[in-house]
Structures are given as structure tokens and as C-alpha cells.
Design goal:
Elements (H helix, E strand, L loop, with lengths): L3 H5 L10 H4 L1 H5 L5 E2 L11 H11 L11 H15 L8 E4 L2 H12 L5 E4 L6 H7 L4 E4 L3 E3 L2 E3 L2 H7 L4 E7 L11 H13 L3 E5 L20 H4 L2 E5 L13 E4 L3 H14 L6 H13 L1 H24 L4 E2 L7 E5 L7 H11 L2 E2 L1 E2 L10 E5 L4 H16 L9
Parallel strand pairs: 1-13, 3-4, 3-7, 7-8, 8-9
Antiparallel strand pairs: 2-10, 5-6, 9-10, 11-12, 12-15, 14-15
Helix pairs in contact: 4-12, 5-12, 6-7, 6-11, 13-15
The structure holds pyridoxal-5'-phosphate (PLP).
The site of pyridoxal-5'-phosphate has 14 residues, from helix 6.
Length: 398
Amino acid sequence: MYSSSFFDEIVDRRGTSCVKHDLSNEVFGLPDVLPMWVADMDFRVAREISTAVKARAEHDIYGYAFQPQSFYQSAVDWVQRRHHWTIQPEWLSFSPGIVPALNICVQAYTDPADKVIIQTPVYPPFYSAIKDHGREIVDNPLVKRDSSYEIDFDHLEKIIDRQTKMLILCHPHNPVGRVWTRQELEQLAAICVRHRLIVVCDMVHSDLALDHQPCPSLAGISPEIDALTVSLIAPSKTFNVAGLGTSLIFTSNPVLKAKFKKVCDSLHVGSGNIFGTVALEAAYRHGDAWLNGLLEYINANFDILDEWTARAPYVQYIRSQGTYLAWLDFSPSGLSGNELYDTIIRKARVGLNKGLEFGTGSASFMRMNLGCPASIVRQAIRRIDESFSSFKFRVDVS
Ligand SMILES: Cc1ncc(COP(=O)(O)O)c(C=O)c1O
């Protein structure tokens, strides 16, 4: 059992070469911000994982290794148990991370100067994975309708031409927190099948769908889209083991799998590391109780944010359906991007991600990471409230 008191614990991570806590000065120019930026959680890992990693460490020989069959089977069983997606062990391939997998996919499935579609605002490495390999980014911006971010299917149809070869889907979507519904995925699949677009479906946040809602798999929509889809999954966000560099891709299409392997082999990044291998299997076999406790805790952190955004006149947001990330819209404050940065980072000393990192239209947004004890969320809100209380912001209360 992992109750809320487990997740309440403040663990001092400073001095562990921790990006989130030890790089404040480099990232914000301040040594003492409350770090709520990079998607990394501040909770102790599940005991089931640390026990398995420690047992492996006890062996004292850390030579070359491979991922055994049980590693792949644990992932097959996990996605069946948690998501009801039926996949086969032979569809899976190891990747040293999801971002490496995105970069490998771009190289494996497109040629230089080909066009790749993303839907912004989106996780920054989606941009670099395309740009850094000489491919062209084509944007299908998400649209905000009523109280939801949605895919603009009409615009999507219009921007596809003969050079467009791939779409990278973020599902659930970082930063807006949408878990795409089956109906939305059906619409998307119909377009991608019609235009023979390969879809790389980044599902690193899929285990973090909140409120027990399902996270349907795009590949499961139809045999036609299945043949065009490569899905990316990992325990890295779910169990906060990103430092172990271990993730998976799966595709039922042997040609897509072989192309991925070819690039992976050419880079010699397919061997993984022994602790990541052990951790993935332990997480996927024994991590349910920890994850169930985590999801309840994250939901409660979102309740705190609901209460804050309902009363604070300078911020609004749409509650995430998946992920522990909140996409905060400070446009009611009337502050410019720079004024906002000054108010939140310099004055309040709360380290959030700037909206502009995710897309050009997001200057009034900031991303807050709720993967931390509730006391930290409350402290951040107090600090931000205080810094706004002395600021003559231009509130639009209409
Ligand atoms: C959508 C998305 N993909 C990938 C990653 C990073 O994955 P990895 O650490 O396995 O490269 C993140 C991290 O925040 C993410 O939000």
C-alpha cells in the first residue's frame, strides 16, 4: 500500500547531480527557486523497483548485458493489464529513451527535406528531433474550444502534401494534458491512412491518465493505422526512472521495426544498461500499487490547483486529463512574457517552464510540475499569490 503519506515525504535531492534541483542557477540564474519545471517527480521510487535494482547491484559484476525475454514479456503484460492493448513481444524494441526513439524514428522513416507534422504547443524535443536531422517542421496547432484543447482536423488535411511523411502524436499531450479519445484517434487515423503518413505515437505519459479514464492506443483503432504506427512507451515518467535510460517502441509492422533497428544499430545505442533493464521489469511486474497511489496523489494536487485557479484572478487553466503537468494561462494578468517571468521566477522564486519553450503562441503560459509533495504545491501558490499581490497587473475581469 502506498498512501498519501508516502508521497508527502520531502526527500532532499540536492547534491545528487539532479537536473531538477541542482541546476537552478544554470537554468534560472537563481540558486533557490522552488523547482517545478522539468518532468521529473520528487517521490521515492517504488520499493519493488529499488529492491530489484539493489539486488542486481549486489552482484558486483556489471558487464555487457542484453534485455531478456522476460523484460519484453513484462511490458506486454503491463499494457494488457493497465490499458487492454494486446501486443506481441516480437513487436517490441529497446530504446535508450523516448527522445532518442523520436530522433531514431525521424531518421528511419523520413528523408532529408521531408515534412513532419507536430501539434503545438508541444514538448520541445519534438521540434529538435525534426529540425536537427534536416527535416521540415509542419505545424498543426491545437485549437482551444470551450474548455478543451482539440486537434484541428480540417487544418491537418490542408497542410499535408507529397513531401509530408510523418506525424508525431503526443498522447497524452504534453503540455496541454489531453488524453485523446477513441473518436479523435479514429478521425486522426482516417486522415493518416488516407495520406499514408507514418505516425510516431509518443505514449510516455499514457500510464498517467487520470480519473481512471482509458488511454486508447492509436494502433488499436484499425489494421490500416496499426500498419503505419510506431508507439513509444516507457516506465521513465510513470515511475520516475528517467535516469535509467530504458524505454520501448512497439509496432506490428516488421518493416518499420527493421528500419528502427537499422538506425539504432548504426548508432550502437541498443544495448541499454543493466539497472534500467531490471527496473523496467520490476516496475511493470510489481508497480501497480505504487502507481495507483501516485495517481490518487496527483489528482489531489490538481484539486489544489483547481481551487487556486478558481479564486486567483490572474491565472486560469484546463485541468490535465493525463500527466502531472499543468499548463497555466496567465493571460488574464495582462503581463507580457518578460513581466510574467519576472513575477513568477525572480519575485516568487518558483521555477516553472516558460510557455515559449513549447511554441511561439504560448508567451502567457507557464508549465507547472505537480509531481511533488502537496506542501510544495501549496508553497508555490503562496509565493505566486504574494508576488502578484504587490504587482499592478492589468486584470481583465470582464
Ligand atoms: C512527451 C514526452 N516524450 C518524451 C519525454 C522524455 O522521455 P525520455 O526521458 O525517455 O527521453 C518526455 C519528458 O518529459 C515527454 O514529456
